[in-house]
Predict the 3D structure of the following.
Amino acid sequence: MAARAVAAAPASLLRGVGLGGSWQRVAMLAPAIIILLAFLVAGIFADLLSAYDPEHIVLIERLIPPAFQEGGSWAHPLGTDNLGRDILSRVMYGARVSLLVVVTCIPASALIGTLCGLLAGWRLGWWDRFLMRIVDVQLALPAILFALLISVVFGASLLNVILIIIIFSWSGYARLVRADVLSLREQEFVVAARASGASDKRILFRHVLPNLLNTIVIMATLDVPSVILIEAALSFLSIGVAPGTPSWGAMISEGRNFMTIAWWPIWMPGIAILLVSLTGNLMGDWLRDTLDPRLRNLR
Amino acid sequence: MGAQSISTILVSRILQGILVVFVVLSVVFLVSRLARNPVEYLTTDQTTAEEKELLKEQLGLSGPIGIQYVNFLVDAVQLDLGNSFISARPALSEVTSRAPKTLQLGAAALIFSLVLGIPLGVIAALNRATPTDWMARFLAVLGQAIPNFWLGLILIFFFAVQLDWMPTGGSGGVEHLVLPTITLGLLASAVSMRLTRSGMIDVMGTDFIRTARAKGLRESSIIWRHAVRHALLPVATILGIQVGYMIAGTVIVEQVFAWPGIGRLMLHTILVGDFPVMIAGILIISTSIVVVNILVDLSYPIIDPRIRAGTR
């Protein structure tokens, strides 16, 4: 019985994602799905797919243009950067960095945020006030400034970037979950469960949480582009990944100095960020429209 | 809840704001001292231990961290955040001397985002599900997806390098402000556009718009005088958050365009380990975000008369 209640939410999710939408929407989504798959495949199999070591420097092959331009060759389809490194390989390894940030930061912040939101919305009182003050503090201290501080004190590394992003994004989930719990706790099925003597844990995880899953999934999808953008921005300012790591943001930062003589070192990673971020936003919007139009003003 | 007087709300919001700034300052202070003494950033391997001790003494960095923290707070309350490790000028005035530049850029970007976002949102809502609407929504999605540091570089590439219409960076006349303003304001304009559009769609279906139509008001008057006013409420609500994002964005945009404001100063001070200036910068930035949020809260009753009547 209880297991069915938990299963009900993913089922409604699948129904929404599946054949409920019109063919027009599916057609519009096809490019997004292709980009998403390409991103996943490039990130997961970067070491198998790339022809070159992304950090291998070949100074005599500096700034070779992409294959489709005069002077380019198919040996380096997207050209080489100022140190003769193959840009296609670096873009693929960059996808791996972004993917790593997504698969670590989003589950972690969703989990922490959901638990805190449940606690605050259910217990209210001290917990609730404490949580809302933390949210206030985070709004007043931009993540980028905190990241600057951390990078100087502890050094630039991918692990630090991931921790900073988690520290700054869990509160979004917490606020959303809290707001939903506040309205759910007054609803009849929750009041009934309480009256029948169910424990808090049982009510929250069997009755309240399944009703929040849509909201959390939408928020998590919309978070994909934002965490990728934060990592790229930090790496662009050289306070993100360690120097030399092929991250999209770091590539743009390095290519910047050669921008006037070679356009491709900043365009290739830039287009990669743009495509993935665009896809994440479109998928998030579509999920939201399909699953829960109420959340239109989420961001 | 009965209608609280505006001054009670104001006082409690200000107290909360002070608490928030206090916590931010404490976190920043403790984190900056967590790994090692700041003196380590300023000295080399050749510096003798005595010289280090002397330097610590001079900069107020000796003694247990608890004492340093208390001293820091006592001074901070008197708006004394110490002197810059580099220039030896008061840290706070180092930051405030850069503030006008950042305010210029931030104000220009905010105005740009509203002037572009609101009309576009209204037009999209009135032409719902037409190519105009799709176009506007696509632009909004693009504006949200594009990384601002990359956009800045691309704008420099086309408009400064290729076409030579604008300077590549620095500050000076209005022409220096154009590209940084677009770069900083585009994301906010996309958000304003989407909120205005959904707000307009909601409000155009309500009874009071039907009543206004039935009264025979002109359509332009219905839209611009009655509907837009309601549709703008969500835009105003998130103005505080938008300003917060913009302040964070100035760190990047000022770096890309070599704009001499607080953001660029912050990046520089942090890279050279000038902690007093960094803490002063964070104090100014956090305080301004808190103040903007209080002002936004206070402006609700002006925008939305229902709140003035105490129904909130």
